[in-house]
């Protein structure tokens, strides 16, 4: 190629390059490649030849070379070096050159590259060209890759072509105008006069692009939307003509006249009729005609029906029309095409809240979709099935969903179990049915349930006093020999510990009682302790249950002592701590054991954050007895019940603020040494409560009476807030309000914020007060304190202060931060006088 020859005068001249191969030959050659490497070699060789041709400024074959380059670009090979050659072809006067040049510009250029600005003048000249096909090329290119600068410069030319009588140019100009409006919305009003006569055009191509333009303008401007609502009758007339017109070979697709235009008009009607009564009324009849007259044997008809359904559901349509739309979706569910079934389920899921009864008619078909092999259809059917559950069909629907839970793939089990829990809680016909349903879920998919399933079920069982014997017997049977479902084992261990006496008494009336001995029950719990499948949390449940049974059983106390002492040297720190504390109860404080391990009271339900009074303590999720225990009925200067109020939070932690040894007026005070003395300094550590304090009239559950009237007193809303704790980026603020029904009650709202760069996780706030007070700690809003002060955790504390004494409090904070477990103790003594006087 670089060789030189002598001409007639003896001068050296470069020889002409051989003609490059044609595009068709290149395609044929590339297709013969057997490997990717061979194809890559062919492409590289041809690219080298094209580059040489570009360097030689070969105008003869530039068009052919750019065409080949575009083919290689479509195969995924780099072709950026041909960008300037495309501009040269666009500037050519030949139509064939312009066609390839504009095609190359659309493929190789975009607005991120400054090279495209060099085209602006060429496109402007071609928009004013005398040949419509050249004008069409320029409109296509501008509508495809024009930048905002190009659109501003050329919008005037586009607007002129939009008014021309040439339908070929009008349809291209309408689409180009859509691109201009997207790039420069403020130019929208320029095209408004040109849109007046667009819908009068008979050409379907112009009609189609005009509807697209009107849709774009309505979506981007409320003023345009209001302006074009007057076109609804005209659009209805066009749609009616399409439906009623006979066979037209030019527009017919599977027996339907121009389905593309019908779909576009339906979408525009949907936008125009939304939130407008008059427009919706004007299109009700035509939508009913489309819904009833469209042929459904072909996919084309299904597409039109789907758009019709979406339009009916989005405008203010009549109730009968909405039922017709949902019935169409019901027919879609019977279609063999999976895509159509999926679309139907998704649409029904969107409409089920507004047209619940109409969707209910198709419940059996929806439930059948749970058996579909396609996972996406199965998931949509599951979501829709849960949306259909109500008080009338809850038993039947739960039966179907439990069957689905049993047979579905693992990725569905978590969502399905959560849905069943929520539906059962909301629509349960009876407590026994509710408990049976949740136990069935735990038995089937226990490993997949949410973390709060265990405390929720425990609370439900605790509140169902009349079926305690039935529940503990069912749970005992459920875990015999099978410890694989850990949440089920945890609930069973908790119930056996609480109601073990009912289990061995054989007093179950709901079903045939079983005869169980104390040793058999302990065998099960010990098996849970040593099972390889048991987690640390489950072992904690089991050990605590065994300890509780020491007050329920009479003959096995010595065996229980042995088990507890064995785990005092466990390598699991959690179990070791429990065992050591329980062992100390046996040895030093045996007279308090029955009071500490007495049966849990009925737990209060807080709707804002799931189960009430469930606090995470030592890895076991249990209701906190310390905060909910009612005061004793008689004067007890240093009663066990009041001593227990001081135990919250101080258990195994060495206090950060050292406290001096205090006197021990009672056995209750001795227990403070075991779990950490958290009485406040500056006051008697375990001062006995006056005899009159326990006799204050209260509801049986601490502060329960507050729910009957407005909780807070408006007069005291001006109590100043305080900062109770600020250290290591963690800040705790207290705000105060006083109860309207009981002036002795102060309601404290804590707000925890985190100014560090990482979240604080597993955050637990605990509090204790002197014995002359009583305290109730409600559930927190979260366990994660977001970083950078982007959010807070809130928690409510209710404090009963009958003697109007100055309020003092010891708080304990535990959380994980930067991979380390953090804990701290602090005293709060700066409460404002308005909060306790």
Number of extended strands:
14
Strand content: 5-15%
The major sheet is characterized as: 5 strands, antiparallel
The oligomeric state of the chains shown is single chain
Q: What share of residues is helical? A: 40-55%
Give the structural class. alpha+beta
> How confident is the prediction overall: mean pLDDT?
81
Which parts are unreliable, with pLDDT below 50 for 5 consecutive residues or more? 1-15, 607-716
- How far apart the termini lie comes to 104 Å
Basic shape: elongated
In spatial order, strands of the major sheet run: 7-8-9-12-11
Radius of gyration: 39 Å
What count of helical segments does DSSP give? 34
GO molecular function, one term: kinesin binding
Keywords: Coated pit, Cytoplasm, Cytoplasmic vesicle, Golgi apparatus, Membrane, Protein transport, Transport
Biased composition (Low complexity): 636-645
Organism: Loxodonta africana (African elephant)
Descriptive notes:
This protein is of the alpha+beta class and 837 residues long. Among the domains are: 451-597, no CATH class; 722-835, Sandwich (Immunoglobulin-like), CATH 2.60.40.1230. It contains 34 helices and 14 strands. Strands 7-8-9-12-11 form a five-stranded antiparallel sheet. β8 (730-738) and β9 (745-754) form a beta hairpin. It is elongated.
């Amino acid at each position: 190629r670089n060789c030189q020859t002598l001409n007639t005068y003896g001068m050296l001249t470069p020889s002409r390059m051989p003609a490059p191969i044609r595009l068709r030959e290149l395609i044929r050659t590339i297709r013969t490649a057997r490997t990717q490497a061979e194809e890559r070699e062919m492409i590289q060789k041809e690219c080298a030849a094209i580059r040489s041709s570009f360097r030689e400024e070969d105008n003869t074959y530039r068009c052919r070379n750019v065409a080949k380059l575009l083919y290689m670009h479509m195969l995924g090979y780099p072709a950026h070096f041909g960008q300037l050659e495309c501009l040269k072809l666009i500037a050519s006067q030949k139509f064939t050159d312009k066609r390839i040049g504009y095609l190359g510009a659309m493929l190789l250029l975009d607005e991120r590259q400054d090279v495209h600005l060099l085209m602006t003048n060429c496109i402007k000249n071609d928009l004013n060209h005398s040949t419509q096909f050249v004008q069409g090329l320029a409109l296509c290119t501008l509508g495809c890759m024009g930048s905002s600068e190009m659109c501003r410069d050329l919008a005037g030319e586009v607007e002129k072509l939009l008014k021309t009588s040439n339908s070929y140019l009008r349809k291209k100009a309408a689409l180009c105008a859509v691109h201009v409006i997207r790039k420069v919305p403020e130019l929208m009003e320029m095209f408004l006069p040109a849109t007046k006569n667009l819908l009068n055009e008979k050409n379907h191509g112009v009609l189609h692009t005009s509807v697209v333009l009107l849709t774009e303008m309505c979506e981007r401007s409320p003023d345009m939307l209001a302006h074009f609502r007057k076109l609804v009758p005209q659009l209805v007339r066009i749609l009616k003509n399409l439906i009623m017109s006979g066979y037209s070979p030019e527009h017919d697709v599977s027996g339907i006249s121009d389905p593309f235009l019908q779909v576009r008009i339906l979408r525009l009607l949907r936008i125009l009729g939304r939130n407008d009564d008059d427009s919706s009324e004007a299109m009700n009849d035509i939508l009913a005609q489309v819904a009833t007259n469209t042929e459904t044997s072909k996919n084309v008809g299904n597409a039109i029906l789907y758009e019709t359904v979406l339009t009916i559901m989005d405008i203010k349509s009549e109730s009968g029309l909405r039922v017709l739309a949902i019935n169409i979706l019901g027919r879609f569910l019977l279609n063999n095409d999976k895509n159509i079934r999926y679309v139907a389920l998704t649409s029904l899921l969107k409409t089920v809240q507004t047209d619940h009864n109409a969707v209910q008619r198709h419940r059996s078909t929806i439930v059948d979709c749970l058996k579909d092999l396609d996972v996406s259809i199965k998931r949509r059917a599951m979501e829709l099935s849960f949306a259909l559950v109500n008080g009338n069909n809850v038993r039947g629907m739960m039966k179907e969903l439990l069957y689905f839970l049993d047979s579905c793939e693992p990725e569905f089990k978590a969502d399905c179990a959560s849905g069943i829990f929520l539906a059962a809680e909301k629509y349960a016909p009876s407590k026994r049915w509710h408990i049976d349903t949740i136990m069935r879920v735990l038995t089937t998919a226990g490993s997949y349930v949410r973390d709060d399933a265990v405390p929720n079920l425990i609370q439900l069982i605790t509140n169902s006093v009349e079926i305690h014997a039935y529940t503990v017997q069912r749970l005992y049977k459920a875990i015999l020999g099978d410890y694989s479902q850990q949440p089920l084992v945890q609930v069973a261990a908790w119930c056996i510990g609480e109601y073990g006496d009912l289990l061995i008494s054989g007093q179950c009336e709901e079903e045939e009682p079983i005869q169980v001995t104390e040793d058999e029950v302990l065998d099960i719990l010990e098996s849970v302790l040593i099972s390889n499948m048991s987690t640390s949390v489950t072992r904690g449940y089991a050990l605590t249950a065994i300890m509780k049974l020491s007050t329920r059983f009479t003959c096995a106390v010595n065996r229980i002592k042995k088990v507890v002492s064995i785990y005092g040297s466990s390598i699991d720190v959690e179990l070791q701590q429990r065992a050591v504390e329980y062992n100390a109860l046996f040895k030093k404080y045996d007279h308090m054991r029955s009071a500490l391990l007495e049966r849990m009271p009925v737990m209060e339900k807080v709707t804002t954050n799931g189960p009430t009074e469930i606090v995470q303590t030592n890895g076991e999720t249990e209701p906190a007895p310390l905060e909910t225990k009612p005061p004793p009925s008689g004067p007890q200067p240093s009663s066990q019940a009041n001593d227990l109020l001081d135990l919250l939070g101080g258990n195994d932690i060495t206090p950060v603020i050292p406290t001096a040894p205090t006197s021990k007026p009672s056995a209750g005070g001795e227990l403070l040494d075991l779990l950490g003395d958290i009485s406040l300094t500056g006051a008697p550590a375990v001062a006995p409560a006056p005899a009159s304090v326990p006799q204050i009239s209260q509801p049986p559950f601490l502060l329960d009476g507050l729910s009957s009237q407005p909780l807070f007193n408006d007069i005291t809303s001006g109590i100043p807030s305080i900062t109770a704790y600020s250290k290591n980026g963690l800040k705790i603020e207290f705000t105060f309000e006083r109860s309207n029904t009981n002036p002795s009650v102060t309601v404290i709202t804590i707000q925890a914020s985190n100014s560090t760069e990482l979240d604080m996780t597993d955050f637990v706030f605990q509090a204790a007060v002197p014995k002359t007070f009583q305290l109730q700690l409600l559930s927190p809003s979260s366990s994660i304190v977001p970083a950078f002060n982007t959010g807070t955790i809130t928690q409510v504390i209710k404090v009963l202060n009958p003697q109007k004494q100055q309020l003092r409090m010891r708080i304990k904070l535990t959380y994980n931060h930067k991979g380390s477990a953090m804990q701290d103790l602090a005293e709060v003594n700066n409460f404002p006088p308005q909060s306790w006087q």
